[in-house]
Amino acid sequence: QLQESGPGLVKPSETLSLTCSASGGSISNKNFYWGWIRQAPGTGLEWIGSIFYSGSTYYNPSLKRRVTIFVDTSKNQFSLKLTSVTAADTAVYYCARRSSPALWYFDLWGRGALVTVSS
Amino acid sequence: SYVVTQPPSVSVAPGKTATISCGGDNIGSKSVHWYQQKPGQAPVLVIYYDTERPSGIPERFSGSNSEDTATLTISRVEAGDEADYYCQTWDSRTDRVVFGGGTKVTVL
C-alpha cells in the first residue's frame, strides 16, 4: 500500500512537501519506479515525475524547474517538493508505483492527498 | 510534445458496449494503458500494454491499439462501470508520461 502525507494547506510562493510511505514491500525493489501524479479540481491527471530507488529521476518538463523527488530508503518513503506554488498547484496529489521494468504504467496508487494553495 | 485525445463523454445503456477512443500520432507504435477513476477515488489500472488485464479486472474490459487510435471497450456495461477513464502512454522523445484528458462514461 501507498499512503501520502503532508500539509493540506500551503501559502502562495512557498514550497509544497509531500511524502509517500510504502508498506508491504521495499521501496528499494530494483523492479520498481515510484511517481507523483496530480489532479486539479474537476480536471484530468497530470504526471509530475518519477524516481528509481537509486535516485535517478524523470520529471515533467512543464514542472521540472520547480520539482524535486527523492527517496529515503531507510524510511521506505519517497517525497515530493514543489517550489514557488500558486493557486494553479491546488490539486489532489497521488503517489504511485510502476512495477514493470519496461513499461510506463502505474499499477498501485495511494488514496491521494488534497493540497490547497491559499493565503 | 506528444498529445493524446479522448472524447469528453460517452453514454451507454446497461448491457450494451462502450467504446472509448484515445487518439495520437502513430499511437499504435506505443504501449497504451487505461485507468478507471470513480468519484473521490484514486485511479485503478484496467488495461496495460494495449490489451492486458491486471488480475481482478473483469473480462468485460478489453483494449486494442492500431495506427492512430487506441480503444478501450467495455462489454455488457453495468451501472458500476460509470466512471472517468484515462488513457496513458510514454513519450520517448521527451521522456514523459502522457495522459489523455479523460472520458466520462455515463450509464443511462
In short:
The complex is a heterodimer of chains A (119) and B (108). Helices cover 0% and strands 49% of the residues of chain A. Chain A is mainly β and 119 residues long.
Structural class of the helix and strand makeup of chain A? mainly beta
Poorly predicted segments of chain A: none
Q: Strand tally of chain A, please?
A: 11
Helix and strand composition category of chain B:
mainly beta
Largest interface, by Cβ-Cβ below 8 angstroms: which chains and how many residues each?
A-B, 21 and 26 residues
Gross geometry of chain B:
globular
In this structure, how is the largest beta sheet of chain A organized?
A: 7 strands, mixed
What Rg of chain A, in angstroms, do the CA atoms define? 13 Å
Specify the number of helices of chain A.
0
Oligomer: heterodimer
The helix content of chain A is: under 10%
Q: How far is it from the N-terminal to the C-terminal residue of chain A, by CA?
A: 33 Å
Task: State the helix count of chain B.
Answer: 0
Overall mean pLDDT of chain B stands at: 97
Strand content of chain B: over 45%
Rg of Cα set of chain B: 13 Å
The best one-word shape of chain A is globular
The N- to C-terminal Cα distance of chain B equals: 36 Å
Number of strands of chain B: 9
Proportion in β-strands of chain A: over 45%
Question: What does this protein look like?
Answer:
The complex is a heterodimer of chains A (119) and B (108). By secondary structure, chain A is mostly beta strands. Helices cover 0% and strands 49% of the residues of chain A. Chain A is built from no helices and 11 strands. In chain A, the strands form 2 sheets. In chain A, strands 2, 4, 5, 6, 9, 10 and 11 form a 7-stranded mixed β-sheet that branches. A 4-stranded antiparallel β-sheet of chain A has the order 1-3-8-7, with no helix packed on it. With 108 residues, chain B is mainly β. In chain B, strand 5 and strand 6 form a beta hairpin. Chain B is globular, with a radius of gyration of 13 Å. The mean pLDDT of chain B is 97. At the A-B interface, strand 5 of A face strand 3, strand 7 and strand 8 of B.
